[in-house]
């Protein structure tokens, strides 16, 4: 069962993923952060602030590879193919692939924009307003692709994880 956590940048997805991993679940870290880290390590140019199109094309490929490599059983993804494909659609008008419609189990868990916990860093150089716009695109994209969406409340990590697991009956 592949479950995706999506939504606003800086909304707590990675923290939720770490908490799910601590409870013994398989997790897949956010492709965008992994790609930025790898590009910075080799002084590459496939970075959102250098060559955004190259970045997002590699992001889609990485998200597809993550799905192919996912182990059997319950796996939580911090973002994934829909997020990457939606970003490519946004920057280049490339249609969202059909595989994005069946990549994950419903519901998709969205974290809303949360200014109080938002932090920019080396991999997240965009501002809070960009994260809000991204959230709005994703909140529209997932239902358009046939997914049910569960918006997580602005609550403690433990409360959010409990809600996810209760919703999924895990």
From TrEMBL:
Any Pfam family hit: AAA_28
Source organism: Acuticoccus mangrovi
Residues of the NadR/Ttd14 AAA domain: 2-160
Source organism superkingdom: Bacteria
Name of the featured protein: AAA family ATPase
């Amino acid at each position: 069962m592949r479950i995706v956590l999506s939504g606003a940048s800086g909304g707590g997805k990675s923290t939720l993923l770490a908490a799910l991993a601590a409870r013994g679940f398989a997790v897949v870290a956010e492709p965008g952060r992994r790609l930025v880290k790898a590009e910075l390590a080799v002084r590459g140019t496939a970075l959102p602030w250098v060559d955004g199109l190259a970045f997002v094309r590699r992001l889609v490929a990485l998200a597809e590879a993550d799905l192919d490599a996912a182990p059997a059983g319950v796996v939580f993804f911090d973002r994934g193919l829909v997020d990457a494909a939606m970003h490519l659609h946004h920057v280049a008008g490339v249609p969202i692939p059909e595989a994005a419609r069946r990549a994950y189990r419903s519901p998709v868990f969205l974290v809303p924009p949360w200014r109080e916990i938002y932090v920019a860093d080396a991999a997240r150089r965009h501002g809070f307003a960009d994260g809000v716009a991204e959230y709005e695109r994703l909140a529209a994209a997932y239902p358009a692709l046939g997914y049910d969406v569960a918006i997580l409340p602005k609550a403690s990590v433990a409360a959010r994880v409990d809600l996810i697991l209760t919703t999924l009956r895990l």
